[in-house]
C-alpha cells in the first residue's frame, strides 16, 4: 500500500480516537495530534516531491500504487500525486490544523462536531490522492455528506434551510458527475477506471465527448460556484460554523475546480476545446457577478461568500483559457483563495462570537476594542484585493497574464471584463474595513469586549504566515504546479 494512504488512515484513526474520547480535553488532544501529523505529512510530501523532480524523476504521478478492489468493473484503489495534488494536500492540512484551533471552544456536542469534521476531511484527502474514477467519486461523496449535519445542527441563522439547499444542489451535481463518469468508462471500452490510462488511451468518440463534457463540468462546477449554480454558496457559508466555513470555502470548493481540470478537461479534451466558450462566458459572469454582489451585502459572511463565488469563478475561468500560464495561475488561485478565505472566515467567526452580530451597519470602532483581530482582518482584506507581497497578487497576475496570451478577440474581451473585478473587490473590501474598524462604536457594550485568545491568535498567525509566505516566495509552488499542468494541457490541446 502506498505511503499516500496515510492521508486516509490518520483521519480514520482520529475518528476512532474521538469516538473513544471521554471529555473535551481528550477530544482536543486527538484533534491537535491528528491534524499536526497530517500537516507534517503534507510538508514532507511537498519536500519529497520537489526533491524527486530535482533528482530527475519525470513520472507524471509519483508514489503510485494500485490495489484491485472490484475486478469485474476494473475498480482499483489507485493513488498517486503530482504537483497539483501535492499543493492541494498541503492546503487541506493547513486548513484542518488551523480550523481545529478556530473551533477550540465550540459548544455543544464538541466531540460529535469534530467527528463529522474529521470525516469531511477524510473525503477531501482521499479525493486528492485518488487516480481511479470510482475511488475519487466515493471520496467526493464522503466529503459532501457531513456538510448537512455540520451546518444543520451547529450552524446559525437559517441553518436548516441552508443545509438542505446546499445538500440538494451538491447531490444534484453528484448525479451529473456519476452519469458522466459512467459514460467515460463504458465509451472508452470499459477496460479501466484509471484516469491516466483513460487519458493516454482515449477512444471516446468526439460526438460522445460533447455530450458527456457538460455533465462532468457542470457537476463539478456546482461545487466550484459556477454561475448560475452558485446559489447554495452564500447561504451555506453564511450559516456554517467557523471551522466548517474555513474547510468548505478553503478546501471543499477546490474539489470542483480540481475535478473540472483533472476529469472533465483531461479525459474529454475534444469537448473541452469545442465547448469551452460556453463555460467561459458563464465563468466570466461568475467573476464579475460575485464581486458586484459582495458590494451590496451587509453581512460579513455573505460578503466573503460572494467574494468566494468571484474568486472560485476565476479558477474555472483560467482553466478554460487553456494556456500553461493561466492554468498554473488557476491552481495558484485555488491555493491562495483557500488560505485567504479561511483567514477571513476565522476572523469573522471570532468577531461574531464576541459581538453576536455580523451586520457591518451595527459594528464600528473595533480597531480600538480588539486590535489583533482588526489588524488580521485588514491583512486578509489587503491579500484579497491583490496587494503585492500577498498570495492574491501572484495568483491573479498569473491568471490574467496567461489568459491574455490567447490572441483572439473573444478571449481577450473576457479577460478584460474579468480584470474589472479587481477594482470592485477593492471597493467592497475597503468599504467593509471602514465600516467595522474605523467608524465610531455603535454599541456601548462593545467597549467591554476582549481581544483574541491564544488559540485564536495561533490560528490567525498561521494563516497570515502562509498567505504572506506564498506571496513572497511563490516559485516553489509555481514550478510544482506547472510541472503537473504541462502533461494535462498536452492532452487537452492536441
From TrEMBL:
Transmembrane segments: 30-50, 86-106, 113-131, 137-154, 166-187, 207-230, 251-269, 275-296, 303-322, 334-352, 372-395, 415-438, 458-477
GO BP of this protein: ATP synthesis coupled electron transport; electron transport coupled proton transport
InterPro entries tied to this protein: NADH_Q_OxRdtase_chainM/4, NADH_UbQ_OxRdtase, ND/Mrp_TM
Localization: Endomembrane system; Membrane
Pfam families: Proton_antipo_M
Gene Ontology molecular function terms on file: NADH dehydrogenase (ubiquinone) activity; NADH dehydrogenase activity; ubiquinone binding
GO CC terms, sorted: endomembrane system; membrane
Annotated keywords: Membrane, Transmembrane, Transmembrane helix
Membrane topology reported for the UniProt record: Multi-pass membrane protein
Ranges where the NADH:quinone oxidoreductase/Mrp antiporter transmembrane domain occurs: 131-407
Protein's recorded name: NADH dehydrogenase
Family per record: Belongs to the complex I subunit 4 family.
Highest taxon of source: Bacteria
Principal localisation: membrane
Amino acid at each position: 500500500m502506498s505511503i499516500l494512504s496515510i492521508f486516509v488512515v490518520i483521519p480514520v484513526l482520529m475518528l476512532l480516537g474521538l469516538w473513544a474520547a471521554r471529555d473535551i480535553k481528550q477530544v482536543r488532544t486527538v484533534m491537535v495530534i491528528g491534524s499536526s501529523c497530517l500537516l507534517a505529512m503534507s510538508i514532507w510530501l511537498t519536500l519529497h516531491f520537489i526533491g524527486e523532480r530535482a533528482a530527475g524523476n519525470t513520472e507524471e504521478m509519483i508514489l503510485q500504487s494500485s490495489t484491485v478492489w472490484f475486478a469485474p468493473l476494473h475498480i482499483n484503489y489507485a493513488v498517486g500525486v503530482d504537483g497539483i495534488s501535492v499543493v492541494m494536500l498541503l492546503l487541506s492540512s493547513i486548513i484542518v490544523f488551523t480550523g481545529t484551533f478556530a473551533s477550540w471552544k465550540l459548544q455543544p456536542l464538541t466531540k460529535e462536531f469534530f467527528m463529522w469534521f474529521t470525516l469531511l476531511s477524510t473525503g477531501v484527502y482521499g479525493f486528492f490522492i485518488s487516480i481511479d474514477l470510482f475511488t475519487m467519486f466515493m471520496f467526493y461523496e464522503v466529503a459532501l455528506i457531513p456538510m448537512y449535519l455540520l451546518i444543520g445542527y451547529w450552524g446559525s441563522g437559517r441553518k436548516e434551510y441552508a443545509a438542505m439547499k446546499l445538500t440538494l444542489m451538491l447531490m444534484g451535481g453528484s448525479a451529473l458527475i456519476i452519469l458522466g463518469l459512467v459514460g467515460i468508462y463504458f465509451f472508452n471500452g470499459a477496460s479501466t477506471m484509471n484516469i491516466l490510462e483513460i487519458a493516454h488511451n482515449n477512444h471516446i468518440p468526439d460526438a460522445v465527448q460533447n455530450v458527456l463534457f457538460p455533465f462532468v463540468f457542470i457537476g463539478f462546477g456546482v461545487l466550484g460556484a459556477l454561475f448560475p449554480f452558485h446559489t447554495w454558496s452564500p447561504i451555506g457559508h453564511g450559516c456554517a460554523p467557523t471551522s466548517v466555513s474555513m474547510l468548505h470555502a478553503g478546501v471543499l470548493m477546490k474539489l470542483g475546480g480540481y475535478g473540472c481540470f483533472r476529469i472533465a478537461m483531461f479525459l474529454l479534451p475534444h469537448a473541452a476545446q469545442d465547448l469551452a466558450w460556453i463555460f467561459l462566458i458563464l465563468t466570466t459572469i461568475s467573476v464579475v457577478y460575485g464581486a458586484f454582489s459582495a458590494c451590496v451585502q451587509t453581512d460579513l459572511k455573505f460578503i466573503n461568500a460572494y467574494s468566494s463565488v468571484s474568486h472560485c469563478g476565476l479558477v474555472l475561468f483560467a482553466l478554460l483559457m487553456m494556456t500553461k500560464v493561466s492554468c498554473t495561475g488557476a491552481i495558484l488561485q485555488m491555493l491562495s483563495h483557500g488560505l485567504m478565505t479561511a483567514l477571513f472566515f476565522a476572523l469573522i467567526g471570532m468577531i461574531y462570537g464576541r459581538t453576536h452580530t455580523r451586520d457591518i451597519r451595527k459594528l464600528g470602532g473595533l480597531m480600538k476594542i480588539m486590535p489583533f483581530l482588526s489588524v488580521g482582518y485588514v491583512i486578509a482584506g489587503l491579500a484579497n484585493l491583490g496587494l503585492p507581497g500577498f498570495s492574491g497578487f501572484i495568483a491573479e497576475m498569473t491568471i490574467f497574464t496567461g489568459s491574455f496570451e490567447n490572441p483572439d478577440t473573444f478571449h481577450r474581451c473576457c479577460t478584460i471584463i474579468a480584470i474589472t473585478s479587481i477594482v470592485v473587490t477593492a471597493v467592497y473590501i475597503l468599504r467593509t474595513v471602514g465600516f467595522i474598524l474605523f467608524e465610531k462604536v455603535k454599541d456601548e457594550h462593545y467597549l467591554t469586549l476582549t481581544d483574541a485568545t491564544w488559540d485564536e491568535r495561533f490560528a490567525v498567525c498561521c494563516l497570515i504566515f502562509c498567505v504572506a509566505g506564498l506571496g513572497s516566495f511563490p516559485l516553489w509552488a509555481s514550478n510544482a504546479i506547472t510541472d503537473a499542468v504541462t502533461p494535462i494541457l498536452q492532452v487537452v490541446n492536441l
